[in-house]
Amino acid sequence: MLDTTTLEAATSKLPNIVLILVDDMGYGDPACFNEQSKIATPNIDSLARDGMRFTDAHASGPLCHMSRYGLLTGRYPFRTDVSKWPKHALIRPDQATIATVLKRREFRTAMVGKWHLGFNENGYENALPGGPVDCGFDSFFGIRASTDIPPYFYISGNRAVDPPTDSIEANSSEGWSPIQGEFWREGGIAPGLELDEVLPRFTDEAVSVIQAHDREQPLFLYLAYPAPHTPWLPVEAFRGKSGAGMYGDFVMMVDAQIGRVLKSLDDERMSDDTLVIFTSDNGPVWYAEDVDRFSHDSVGGLRGMKADAWEGGHRMPFVARWPGKVKAGSSCDQTISFVDMLATFAAVAQTELTENEGPDSFSILPLLHGSDEPVRSSLALSSGSKLKTIRSGPWKLILGLGSGGFSKPSKIAAKRGDPLGQLYHLENDPAETTNLYNDMPDKVAELTSMWDAIENNESSRTVLQGTNH
Whole-angstrom Cα distance, residue 467 to residue 469? Predict the structure, then answer.
């Protein structure tokens, strides 16, 4: 075991890690992933210019709570009942998270933003156990869930800053679907809280964490913005500035907030010692009529949107910048998942995971260092309506018909002679236009067996023992 002096010397050489997770931004929104984007994203683009783009990166699931659960725990979210989040904490007290693993190496761990993984609620005037500070974070300032899901109030540590004793009426926008625009639900709200101030407030908090950080200790900052998820609330400086309506304007505002965080790293002379990862939690709410109206494809040629089993629901823009470690202007087309972050950060921090920690997590550190060898041989997902999906190489099998999410139809009952599911070759058909299910029964059987093995075993690392991981 390292003595204290040796440990301090070792930890002083470890990088800081800043993980920026935005909310409901599509693969085709940042210009660095879509040359035809109608939205200017200079700060996200700068990360791609100075780092590595991942073109086959996937959320743990195509909805907010599913995505975040897998990201923090390295465990596929279909292995737990994520629907309990409104009243119950989803992460068990004995469960490893990115934060608990990094604390072994003396990281200062801070979270700012949207939690959406539940608290064990017993009245908002009381403590809120089961949240970030009980899952390895030294500090937390944020909100319970999205800024369209009441009650609306800030949380510091494990207590409401001000309980949601006031009320707010529901709101919507003309010219958009019921779940787009300036949409929020009625419910409780803390006195004085303004929904349009939440996004910049979180940037203020993140910058404060960076400015107050002791450089002798590595920092892990998890910044989970609740935007550009609804309500779309761009401030005046961004209104009308994009070519994609109020949504695009709000994405531009999000990009500007990211720029403030990156500037703070520069100002504190931390950029050269920091691994910055940017990504989005799941696909956008952007319909075919929106594409037609604005000539902006938020999923960049993929199929589907938020909650879907199709690629638009879970294939995410993903960028990593790490000066001197990650080649500037590079890209990687290997398949990765949010569940891989736990094993990756453990590797970055030079610590080992136990057999039970991050059971579905595979380190992407070799990819960051320039390797082009696969780090995982499969990827399992579940859609918003629990439609099962399995990837292996270019092949993707969906065990049912329909989108499984927000795109219509969500579910389709197979008729006689119809395929029972969907099989796509994503290298040849990234837009999932040609269903090969009936043409390739052997591939369907192979992938179905792969799904069954993963689902029936608590660890896909165990299932895939001996394969690339």
Answer: 6
The pLDDT-based confidence of 463 (bands split at 50, 70, 90) is: confident
Helix segments in 19-63, DSSP class H: 42-50
> Which residue shows structure tokens 């009980």?
134
Residue 466: pLDDT band with limits 50, 70, 90: very low
Contact predicate 66/281, CB 8 Å: no
Q: Is the pLDDT at 468 greater than 60, yes or no?
A: no
- Is the model's pLDDT at 367 over the cut of 80? yes
Q: What is the DSSP letter of 396?
A: E
Q: What's phi and psi for 112, nearest 5 deg?
A: -130, 130
Q: How far apart are alpha carbons 356 and 377 in whole angstroms?
A: 20
Give the helix, strand, coil percentages of the chain, each rounded to 5. 30, 20, 50
Between the CA of residue 440 and those of 48, 74, 463, what are the distances in Å?
38, 32, 24
Q: Is the pTM of this model over 0.90?
A: yes
Q: Are 147 and 229 contacting, i.e. CB atoms less than 8 angstroms apart?
A: yes
Judged on CB neighbours under 10 Å (0-12, 13-18, 19+), 139 is: middle
Going along 258-353, which residue ranges are E strands? 274-280, 315-321, 330-332, 336-337
Residue 32, Ramachandran bin (φ over 0: left; ψ between -120 and 50: alpha; else beta): alpha
End-to-end Cα spacing for the chain: 27
Q: What is the DSSP letter of 36?
A: T
Give tens-digit pLDDT for 44-75: 999 999 999 999 999 999 999 999 999 999 99
Of residues 373, 355, 385, 367, the one with CA closest to residue 460: 355
Question: Quick check: 56 and 315 in contact, CB under 8 A?
Answer: yes
Closest CA to 92 of 137, 134, 140, 141: 134
Q: What is the pLDDT of residues 430-443, one digit of tens each?
A: 999 999 999 999 99
Cα–Cα separations (whole angstroms), residue 387 to 206, 306, 338, 360, 458: 36, 14, 19, 19, 19
**Average pLDDT, stretch 10-29?**
90
Q: What is the pLDDT of residue 464?
A: 64
- The Cα-based distances of 436 to 12, 27, 386, 396, 444 in angstroms read 53, 25, 22, 10, 9
* The pLDDT of residue 462: 76
Q: Mean pLDDT, to the nearest integer, of 405-426?
A: 95
Is the confidence at residue 1, as pLDDT, over 80?
A: no
Give the three-class secondary structure for 234.
coil
Q: How far is CA 385 from CA 399, 409, 449, in A?
A: 12, 12, 21
User: Which whole number is the average pLDDT over 167-184?
Assistant: 97
Q: How many CB atoms lie within 10 A of CB 101?
A: 25
Calculate the CA dihedral of residues 317, 322, 324, 325 and round it to 10 degrees: -70
